[in-house]
Amino acid sequence: MPKADAIVPPAVIGFVGLGKMGLPMAGRLLAAGFAVHGFDPVADARAALAASGGVACATAAEAAAGAAAVITMLPDGDIVRSVMLGGATPVAAAMEPGAILIEMSSSAPLATRSLGADLAAVGLGIVDAPVSGGVKKAVAGTLSIMVGGAVDAIARVPAILAAMGAAVFETGGLGSAHAMKALNNYVSAAGLIAACEAVRIGADFGLDPAVMTDILNVSTGRNNTTENKLKAFILNEAYDSGFGLALMTKDIGIAADLATALDRPAPFSRTVAEFARRALDNLGPTADHTEVDRYLGRLKT
Ligand code: NAD
Asked: Could you please report the per-residue DSSP string of the chain?
């Protein structure tokens, strides 16, 4: 039984950021009976939302006007902050009194806390609710969603999160879900780089990469990359998982910076962050994260 002020269909949801993840997530909200007013600077993304039954808006502020909740699914927290508070038509100024921001991007937790304080000062609520699972699970509506924030704010959004996710984990106060997301992605990135490096060393020695993958997957080296990425995206050189290397690099940096802010020595996260940064510089801003393997290949003299 939803709480009295819980947001349920057919409420209007403003959706800002209709990219690889945002567009299918908006589609799940529509399928659940919510009205979605969406904005993205990319015209094709707006057209795709309209084609699937949403309302394409000319600005983010227009998408937010009249909405019970606004979802941001943007590259990073700096962009979220500028969309919410900056420019000529800030979203925060367009939101209804008492409306809530559901910040679903993978953003930096300390910046999310400070955004929360700024929004509270103008009477707006916020939860951070980043997701795990990638494009495939966004399309299927089976994402894992972490959610942080005040208990009464979280109590308003379960129907919205359930439309997009199969599992929702409450992590604590505002920013805690963003911290958890960055730390998860750091661990995932470290596993990706280790697996790709090991397969390349093995191949140089004469091992078959496909056989290596099969053995890793029944051995203690098994991880998400060995199970779900090596054969699907890397050994076949498709490199088209849908998760950008720039985003992965940002996430590792958030985890490493969090350690610094907490005075926690975390040398391996810094090493992984520096490796990802060098790979990104080499491969360019549009590279898929699985292309760290291509970068490893280029290192061979
Ligand atoms: P994306 O680059 O495909 O989408 C981001 C969208 O934001 C783009 O369509 C872009 O045009 C739009 N945008 C940029 N600046 C904007 C602005 N000022 N106003 C409105 N829209 C703006 O990225 P994505 O893969 O959809 O990822 C979105 C977020 O989700 C990121 O924080 C990412 O780290 C996270 N994430 C991605 C995945 C994945 O597998 N792709 C998985 C989990 C989490």
From this structure: ---TT---TT-EEEEE--STTHHHHHHHHHHTT-EEEEE-SSHHHHHHHHHTT-EE-SSHHHHHTT-SEEEE--S-HHHHHHHHH-SSS-HHHHSPTT-EEEE-S---HHHHHHHHHHHHHTT-EEEE--EESHHHHHHHT-EEEEEES-HHHHTT-HHHHHHHEEEEEEEESTTHHHHHHHHHHHHHHHHHHHHHHHHHHHHHHT--HHHHHHHHTTSTT--HHHHHTIIIIITT-----S-BHHHHHHHHHHHHHHHHHTT---HHHHHHHHHHHHHHHHH-TT-BGGGHHHHHHHT--
